[in-house]
Amino acid sequence: MLALPTVVGETMPKYDFDLFTIGAGSGGVRASRMAGKLGARVAVAEESRVGGTCVMRGCIPKKLLVLGAHFAEDFEDARAYGWSVDGARFDWPQLIRNKNKELDRLEGVYRRVLRENAVTLVEGRARLADAHTVEVDGKRHTAENILIATGGWPSMPALPGIEHAISSNEALDLPRLPKRIAIVGGGYIAVEFAGIFNGLGAGVTEIIRAGTILRGFDEDVREALAEEMRKKGVTIRSDCQVRAIEKTNGRYSVRLAGGDAVEADVVMYATGRAPNTKGMGLEEAGVTLDNKGAVAVDAYSRSSVPNICAIGDVTDRLNLTPVAIAEAMALVQTLFGKTPTAMDYANIATAVFSQPPIGTVGLTEAEARERGPVDVYLSRFKPLKHTLTGRDERTMMKLVVDRKTDRVLGCHMVGADAPEIIQGIAVALKCGATKAQFDATVGIHPTAAEEFVTMREKLPEHGKG
Predict the structure, then answer these.
(1) 3-class DSSP state of 253
(2) Number of domains into which the chain is organized
(3) Are 76 and 187 contained in the same domain?
(4) CB 56 within 8 A of CB 182
(5) Residue of 367, 373, 320 lying closest to 345 (CA atoms)
(6) Please, is 86 exposed, middle or buried when counting C-beta atoms within 10 Å of its C-beta (0-12, 13-18, 19+)?
(7) pTM, 2 dp
(8) Domain check: are 137 and 35 in the same one?
């Protein structure tokens, strides 16, 4: 290639790129393409597949499996509505093939989006050589700003036999559906996979150290989901400590403290995720990490090294894909839009795609009570669908209201369509809606969602805050 002549008075760029992003997940891709759209010279490095955790190993493939698992109940319930569903059978390898085909399509979309915004994709493992230099497979690239968006990775405890366990990564691509699976962990990943495998016909035992599932969620949500999971056949072993995993004749025995054991064909660990920062040269470049290995950042996602920023799960702030994307948008405005923008973490809705699913936004009852007196409204009911099916499933809805201001502080739901319903409720909470405004809203009948605007009786046991 011929070298272009130097124009008199022209200043040569000091760095190869204005922004170099490490990690092409949802946050990294969004930041890279939006910066590119604003005219910045951008590169993004990825050692695995473009799309990151959400698209390749998390939200999307997991939700597809959740949808697939739910057909078992749908076929059963159809009989109550006059449908005969004969000869239905399930093919796990077919579901996995179709899921992988969709992931291939999505990766193609992500790659095209990067190309269309003039973002250079550098494939390989990246590490920092210094505060302005990224090395990828031996080649060095300089950048004025560096963005760390490497997400998280399943963490496994050090215990005898842990090499026999799989994580959620491998659970998405098992060659065959296990007859029995032991899932260790009580968080959202564990309960989602418990619902998937149980719905598809596997015997599921969930082993948790706590008294019940989903630590950090509202207590009524935790209890309601645990009850529904047990009704569907999931065995939840609470207050259990795993001591070892033993393999015998191709099967596994999960040894618990006290001498008891759980037998399974597959053992899955879902006890947490760790920020993906090891071996990246971050600390050597002066970047401060917290005790979990997360990149410590300020309100504008800047690390202890001003030109090195971080967003998403690698910062361990609020580990949700839409949050990483919103952090990316705020960062691009800060770096290239001449508008310093901090992320607003208040009233961010979230969902757990358990069976039944959870939707929640705002404060839990316990969190709200720490701020002052509250009124609590709670409703449990059988969904209209199951008045014909006879299925013993109940929906739970809950509102937590500030007694002094009447402002709704938290909305929680366990039941069919909860994530779809709570998304709309989240808009109301973001706008500061009051209970009186909820009450003044005319519901859509007959729906489950109307219950949120028709609850009038506060729980008497909470009457004094």
Answers:
(1) strand
(2) 3
(3) no
(4) no
(5) 320
(6) exposed
(7) 0.94
(8) yes
Q: Do 47 and 174 reside in the same domain of the chain?
A: no
How buried is 87 (Cβ within 10 angstroms: 0-12 exposed, 13-18 middle, 19+ buried)?
A: exposed
Peptide bond connecting 154 to the previous residue in cis, omega within 30 degrees of 0: no
Higher pLDDT, 3 or 106: 106
Q: Which amino acid is residue 303, in one-letter code?
A: S
Question: Is the Cβ–Cβ distance between 90 and 64 less than 8 Å?
Answer: no
The span from the CA of 70 to the CA of 81, in Å, is 17
Q: Which domain holds residue 114?
A: 17-154+274-336
Interstrand relation of 408-414 and 358-362 (parallel, antiparallel or unpaired): antiparallel
Could you report the per-residue pLDDT of 343-387, keeping only the tens digit for each? 999 999 999 999 999 999 999 999 999 999 999 999 999 999 999
Who's near 331: CB < 8 A, 6+ residues apart?
31, 147, 300, 301, 309, 311, 341
The region that residue 417 occupies, defined by phi over 0 for left and psi between -120 and 50 for alpha, beta otherwise, is left
- Cα separation, 182 vs 192, in Å, equals 13
Residues labelled catalytic: 445
Tokens read off for 414: 């366990």
Element (H, E) at 108: helix 92-116
Claim to verify: residue 145 and residue 226 sit in the same structural domain:
no
Contact 453, 443 (CB under 8 A): yes
Give the C-alpha separation, 136 to 209, whole Å. 41
Write out pLDDT tens, residues 6-35. Answer: 333 445 689 999 999 999 999 999 999 999
* Alpha-carbon gap, residue 338 to 342, rounded angstroms: 13
Judge contact between 230 and 391, C-beta under 8 A. Answer: no
